[in-house]
Amino acid sequence: MDKYLVVGHPVPQVDARERVSGAAEFVSDIRLPGMLHGRILRSPHPHARLLRIDTSRARRFPGVKAVVTAEDTPKIPFGPRTDDWMIMAVDKVRFVGDEVAGVAAVDEDTAEEALSLIEVEYEPLLAVFDPLEAMQPGAPLIHNKEKNIVSEFDLVKGDVDQAFKESDVVYTNRYYTNQVYQAYLEPMACVVQPDLSGKLTFYMATQIPSMTRIPYAKALGLPLEKVRVVVPYYGGAFGAKMETNLHLVAAVLAQKTGKPVRMVNPREEDFMAGNPRVPMAINLTIGAKKDGTLTGKEVKVVGAAGARAVYSMVIVATACYRIDSLYHFKNLRTKGVTAYTNTVPTSAYRGFGNAQMAFAVESSLDMIAETLSIDPAELRIKNGIQTGETSIHGWKIGSSGLSECVRRATEASGWKEKRRQKQFARGIGLACCNHVSGNRAFAREFDGGAGIVRIGREGKVLVYHGESDMGQGQNTVFAQIVAEELGVSLEQIEVARVDTDVSPFGLGSFATRGTVFGGNGVKAAAADAKRQVFELAAEMLEANPADLEAREGKIYVSGSPDKNIPFLKVAENSLYKRGGAPIIGTGFWVPDTVLPDPVTKYGNISPAYPFACQIAEVEVDTETGQVRVINYTAAHDVGRAINPQTTEGQIQGGVAQGVGWTLMENMVIEQGRILNPNFRDYVIPGPLDLPPIKSILVEPVDPKGPFGAKGIGEPALNPAPAAVANAIYNAIGVRITELPITPEKVLQALRRKNEDEKILLL
Amino acid sequence: MKKFYYFEPEGFATALALLAEHKGRAKILAGGTELIPQMKRGLTFPEVIINLSRVPGLREMKEGPEGLSMGALVTLGVLERSPLIASRYPGLHEAVGHLAVPAIRNAGTIGGNICLDTKCIYGDQMQTWERAFAPCFKRGGKKCYVVPGDKTCHASLAADTIPILVALEAKAKVVSLKGEKTIPVENLFTGNGIRPHSLSPVEILTEIILPLQEKGMSSVYRRFSLRKAIDFPLASAAVCLKKKEGFCEEARVVLGAVASRPLRLALVEGALKGEEIREQILQECSRQASEEALRISKSGRIDSFSKTMITCLVYQTLKRAWLAEG
Question: Which of A16, A250, A258, B173 has its CA 20 to 30 A from that of B91?
Fold first, then answer.
């Protein structure tokens, strides 16, 4: 480990001081001269024809500067994947929360009051909320798509029927994963600033600063270069902060008024019109031999897209086949359907469908292990994918720490003893997951990462990347990578905020790709800068550039430690010698990923695949049904932790979110209305509800990741629901297959179990 | 948030005069941890806010021959840290200790908590809704979504201090321009989810008096919530027992959060009175509690899970009160 001076060391985030002192300017803190405040009028109906909108009273209201509707937009259908979006509703509204009109006023209260002055006449239409009902004949059509189907996924490998015939156990169950909200601290927000040329600068929270320009430019009927995105500090995203009409309504208001317009979702509206997790019904059958060898898997997934597709169909596809590269299932039959419903559009939330499927598969494997009297940990190790293998879908596993994760998590948690000596109503459960570090199938145009490293006169190094730090510590990791590569101290590095006028075209922060892609990108840029530094230093030291090394702020001649020159001197000299030009290194990294075949899905979607094993210990109150997670162990194959501190932070956060999802979080929806759109009624866990979480970093050092690193964002959450559900099963012998696992469900299941036992005794 | 007028009167006379002048359009601010969020969410729009923080005496606690009196503006945090409350009224100590989080307890007051409005996920909705869905009773409409078809509002009165104050038989001092009156805390509640308090718009709750605790008395409070902190209870129970040589001389059992008022379970109290306390009677009483709650509240809010919660809570509180030293 000592060979690296910065990488691999647990350092606080580079912007920790700004964040904790309140100095960091988040999106909602931005105030520009002449700025107006925008609000959106949203549909109260789940499905209705839009007959008439009268904005005249609102426009006359003192302090109101503009009121806009679809009539003020080019009415070009757009969307990240399917053209089923409009900036504001045209002819029809499709969910409670659909954007109908926008107001810009001198302050937020005025804008809010003006909303109540807009008169809208609706003709309510029959609405449909359940994806299975939406696909029935005669169901109301939401987008004039046959049976409301957004997309279907079909995949067959081998012969599942034969495999099941030859199996000693075939286990089938039906699972349901509910709709949950990402609960980031800062709601969706932006300030859009227009200029005289018609260019719009979006100061906004987005995980995909460069990519999002494409649908936004299309929607606004602007050439791409007229859309500039700047990413300030922002308060979390977890998958939700990609495209949103909030930004576009603000843009239309900015165009109309010629002033910067600030738009921040009130929390309620963020629930109503955000991007919650895709709820899924999963029918799963898995077969296995007596010795625990898996033989085949058949799965049917139905996902609810809500009223716009966003990324739901890609998420359902991910649920359908990503987990096939975790274990050797050998034979597969998979069907996935995504259907429109008159509910809030659903999209990405940490796990991207793989979390939903991990709940189902890992719950079923627990039951198979029990039937076969095999230790669930052994079952995972026996079937788990190993380093050097190519999975059934062509994924090249450069490194797999799966078995080591299982071994170390079981050792650290006292798994064996606790399974053996069971206490009443106490249980311990285990679940694993795989994931990706970047998804070739998500951004189809290209794959890769890039960076720019600028070395100023004082030796200050400014790093530009095109990804997105939403608080997880990406900037810190990039700074560490560049510092290591240049042989300078971390304090010398500054990471520039992403500005699409300047920054490289990064694909963004999703699919757990930031560290591997952005990291390799800035590493390549730093290497390019170092090459230039060495050229100048070689001249100054009268040495050959190939013989130089950079370490601890100095450039050395290899083998002659006394022959050196400070990095600062070289930086200074470079300006004097080159008419003031700073050293600018640029670099890129293109992995050998392969876009999956549209039919067979064969490809290699990621350069590096992370793995994990999590173990939950629970105590169940059999009188009230309340479940308390009392201990938690999370072992993660992260390749190499560039920053163990931020990596552990990600693990702790992922577990907290996962435990919350499993035991309490749920968007209660009735007739398309969300009944609990606030943090009083939508309950997320607090510190008192969480167990001590022991993080274990497994570091097999991946051949592709920067310094061997893989991603951690999503795998930190994926196994949690199944780990907790399996622990509950171990505690009280009931299998809950529908999230969230509320006290009520636990009690019902216990009651049923008692009845079953009585009937057996008859 | 809508605009409003704001006053900080320095005495009762001015405060009462302001209330009379703005009858029905004014709200009293006694900490603001609930009122301000409710206003921000558009659930209440007072035209006038009267902050009582400058009225003298409202933050005092004093012991007298009748018992311990607490000004309505004594914060929950002060009660939580009071050794007197912890030793003599452990049930109240538990109730304030479970309430919200320390920061909110340091601002929120006992008077404010007692006057907390009822809650309901249907009633506490944004105005956006009302343009498409008929409002419920709580929002001025004519239906209840909790118990469809029912003729009354079923919003829940979930303030943690209410059940234990009722169980302790605390008294409330109320002032108006007509003078001062002292009534049992129990009488502050109407049972009507829309207007759960019996105080008129021109009255101010000024003081809570906790009666002296005789030897052998013990009080206990427990709640059930999904999250441990900052979460209103789904159900709660408060118990006061007076014990003598293994017998129960007197029992008071009160439920919270399962109806629009605190439910005092007279049958359960009667069943315990004079009995020798044994495990069996505690179990019987806790089962009886959920039946009695359902019957006296006629609340469709009490479903089978609520009944389970009530049974568990009553059993646990009774048992702890029985085992407690008094």
Answer: B173
The label of the residue with tokens 């994926």 reads: A718
Whether A623 sits inside 8 A of B127 (CB atoms) is no
In degrees rounded to 5, what are phi and psi of residue A288?
A: -150, 155
Q: Is B102 on the interface with A (CB under 8 A)?
A: no
Query: Distance, in angstroms, between A663 CA and closest chain B CA?
Result: 9
B228 touches chain A (CB under 8 A): yes
Given a cut of 70, whether residue B254 has pLDDT beyond it is yes
Select from A37, A112, A628, A680 the residue whose CB has the most chain B CBs within 10 Å, as the one to mutate to test that interface: A680
Q: What distances in angstroms separate CA B37 from CA A678, B33, B45, B161, B176, one per listed residue?
A: 11, 7, 11, 20, 27
CATH fold, domain A128-183+275-374, is Aldehyde Oxidoreductase; domain 4 (3.30.365)
Res A217 pLDDT > 60: yes
Class of A399-436+609-762 in CATH: alpha beta
Residue A623 amino acid letter: E
Please indicate whether, in this complex, the C-beta atoms of B226 and A664 are within 8 angstroms of each other: yes
B310 min Cα distance to partner chain A (Å): 10
B132 part of contact set with chain A, CB < 8 Å: yes
Mean pLDDT of chain B: 94
Residue count (chain B)? 326
Q: What is the reported pTM?
A: 0.97
Query: Contacts of residue B124 in chain A, CB cutoff 8 Å?
Result: 680-681
Q: For an interface test with A, which of B128, B304, B311 has the most A Cβ atoms less than 10 Å from its Cβ? A: B128
Buried b (16+ CB within 10 A) or exposed e, A81-97: bbebbbbbbeebbbbbb
Q: Which residue of A has its CA nearest to B309?
A: A624
- pLDDT band, residue B326 (cuts 50/70/90): low
pLDDT in tens, A486-500: 999 999 999 999 999
Tens digit of each residue's pLDDT (9 = 90 or more) over B150-176: 899 999 999 999 999 999 999 999 999
* Number of structural domains chain B divides into: 3
Asked if B231's CB is within 8 angstroms of A743's CB, the reply is no
Phi then psi for residue A196, to 5 deg, are -65, -25
Question: Considering only CB atoms, which chain B residues are within 8 Å of A664?
Answer: 226-227
Confidence (pLDDT) at B42: 85
The answer to whether B41 faces chain A, any CB pair under 8 Å, is yes
pLDDT tens digits along A103-149: 999 999 999 999 999 999 999 999 999 999 999 999 999 999 999 99
What distance in Å separates the CA atoms of residue B255 and residue B262, rounded to the nearest whole number?
A: 6
pLDDT range class, residue A236, cuts 50, 70, 90: very high
**Res A1: pLDDT:** 43
Same domain, B167 and B60: yes
Residues B235 and B294 in one domain: yes
The CATH number of residue B188's host domain is 3.30.465.10
Find chain A residues with C-beta within 8 A of B121's C-beta. 668, 675-676, 681
Which pLDDT score is estimated for A444?
Answer: 77
Q: For residue A2, what pLDDT is reported?
A: 61
Query: Does the pLDDT at position A364 exceed 60?
Result: yes
Q: Which residue has the tokens 């991910």?
A: A318
pLDDT value at residue B191: 94
* Percent of chain A at pLDDT exceeding 90: 97
The mean pLDDT value for B189-213 works out to: 96
Tell me whether B308 touches chain A (CB under 8 Å).
Answer: yes
Q: What are phi and psi of A18, to 5 degrees?
A: -60, -45
Contact A373, A379 (CB under 8 A): no
Task: Indicate if B188 and B249 belong to the same structural domain.
Answer: no
DSSP string, A584-600: EEEEEE----BPPPTTT
User: Is B255 contained in some domain?
Assistant: yes
